Amino acid sequence: MSLYYDAVAVISNEERVGGSLKSRIYANKSSKHAPAQIYALVSETTKWSAVLKEVIEKAGILKIEKKLTDVLALLLVHDLILSKRGIAAPQSHALCIAVNRHRSRLNAEFTKLRIRKGYPTLQAFRQSIDASSSASSYDQENEIYPHPRWVRINTLKTSWDKQLKSTFADFEETNVLENVLKASKNQRIFHVDANVENLIALPPLYDTSKMDAYRKSLLILQDKASCFPATLLDPMAHDGDMIDACAAPGNKTTHLAALSSSKDMPSGQKHIFAFERDTKRAETLRKMVAQAGANELVTILGSTDFLQVVPTDDQYSRTTGILLDPSCSGSGIVGRDEEPAFHVPTIPAQSAIQPGHKSKKRKRSRQVEKQRAAESPPVQEESIEEADDETEKRLEALASFQLKLLLHGMKFPDARRIVYSTCSIHVQENEGVVIQALMSEAARSNGWTILPRMQQPPGLQAWSIRGLRSECEQLMASLPHAAGLPSAKEVAEACIRCEKGTAEGTMGFFVCGFSRDPQSVTSTALDTGLNENIDEWDGFSDSE
Asked: What's this protein's family per the entry (predicted)?
């Protein structure tokens, strides 16, 4: 029964732990059961909760079984009706007995509801519920597309040709991504991405955990947008080492390692220094790097803050590329703000009204409601304004920290390219940080400028969604010393944006590159008034 208690704790979230449902479950080390088992129970019950709520209320078991809570009832009834194994608890347990004694009534109410909704079989009902889940269905009215399972071929261990002849030998290839987005969870179909090498899309609900290649880390689940930073850094375009300044959990690090590895290049010629100041996240990074087979290429500097690194340290004298993917608001993450609602059953209130007093009681009730309404202050509009103010302050704090990291990266004397990215949709964290960095002393004195679109790798040049030009124009007009910088149009074209819920099947994301021309280093930098000594603030990474 402890499995259900663990699930109740996750759903209730009384400690108000932030992050997605999945991240909360996997971060909780006090659970007695495997995170995957808890996540499966909670996510499946959530999908069915609207149906089960009605079934439980119709059966009336919460009025009879006082030991059952609303959430526990949902979890137990889900497994009673929908799980092949039944309730995962001893049949002698009091709560198991409480639910089982109503088995016939619950099944009858479920069957009546299924038939009333027009589904002849349980399988048809399941398919409908699966298709309507938030991450796997196409909202035609609002043109919101589902999110595919993006799979990166880990070229540190295998190749696309090998996987095509083995793992995907019986799959159908399609040139149209939409065919994958609308495919069923069991349909064996894939789409080869045109922008990122060794990346394919599988149907939104396809279960990769059963694939042998996935279990051996020959395949890595990584959102397409998350593959853009390492692709833009393009490690084969320069011959030095690289830094991943905010490396955990490690997908971008291992992608960078894969792009740095070449049959024509001896092992160890290029090296990646991966920084992660958080001890727990550093352990996750170590595991992912080891599983991907990148240990020889990556040195992990756990519990090390990139901002404390001295740019002129001899250890980093060969560093020519820096990847910066700092903490951010996480507003672009798929599922961050659209987790499905968990519908909880209610117990109908017992009526204490006697037949002869019916109208009088109702009249008194209406009078009380009117009085309460009159006494209630109109706080809704004020609350919205306060929430907006808090969001704005939070974004300002994040953008300040992000800018500080970027300016620090610009001080590494041999660096030739920096890639800055966020999983945010907000201008403050994206174009705003880029433009302030371009106008900074660190950029001007060290010869840094924007990496133009025409110098980006071909796949990213072809990406059509670019930066927000009007916002770039406004930002550059409001800041001093814009003379001599790229135009707002050039900056916007250099920036790459991804939008979640679109036909491209990506999360919300932003990425921009900076390049350095040593010949253009100025002896005297302009003072832009930007404060580079900015306090740090923790936000989210795209894994949370």
From this structure: Belongs to the class I-like SAM-binding methyltransferase superfamily. RsmB/NOP family.
Give me the pLDDT at residue 137, please: 52
| Whether residues 417 and 269 fall in one domain | yes
Active site residue 423: yes
* The two structure tokens encoding residue 240: 């030095």
- In angstroms, rounded to a whole number, what is the distance separating the alpha carbons of residues 263 and 270? 13
> What per-residue confidence (pLDDT) applies to 161?
97
Distance from C-alpha of 165 to C-alpha of 16, rounded to nearest angstrom? 47
pLDDT higher for 32 or 424?
424
My answer on whether 39 and 169 are in the same domain is no
Domain end marker among 221, 240, 271? 221
Whether 456 and 437 map to the same domain: the answer is yes
Same domain, 319 and 440: yes
Render 181-200 in DSSP notation, one character per residue: HTS-TT--EEEE-SSSTTEE
Residue 91 CB: number of other CB atoms within 10 A?
9
Question: Looking at the structure, do residues 39 and 23 belong to the same domain, yes or no?
Answer: yes
- 307/412 same-domain check: yes
Summarised one tens digit per residue, pLDDT across range 248-265 is 999 999 999 999 986 455
pLDDT tens track for 183-195: 988 899 999 999 9
Q: Is 246 annotated as a binding residue?
A: yes
Q: Is 251 annotated as a binding residue?
A: yes
**CA–CA separation, 436 and 478 (whole Å):** 11
What residues contact residue 416 under an 8 Å CB cut-off, 6+ apart? 238, 240, 320, 321, 515, 516
Residue-wise pLDDT for 150-166, tens only, equals 999 999 999 999 999 99
Residue 517 in marked binding region: no
User: Which pLDDT belongs to residue 406?
Assistant: 98
Domain count, the chain: 3
Element (H, E) at 128: helix 122-131
Range of the domain at 196: 149-221
**421 bridge partner residues:** 511
Q: Are residues 466 and 500 in the same domain?
A: yes
pLDDT band at 369 (very low <50, low <70, confident <90, very high): very low
Length of the chain: 544
pLDDT grade, residue 130 (50/70/90)?
Answer: confident
Assign 531 a pLDDT band (cuts: 50, 70, 90): very low
* Residue 120 marked in a binding site: no
- Residues 117, 156, single domain; the answer is no
Span 464-480, average pLDDT: 91
The response to whether 249 counts as a known ligand-binding position is yes
- The annotation status of 252 as a binding-site residue, yes or no, is yes
> Which residue type, as a one-letter code, is found at position 252?
K
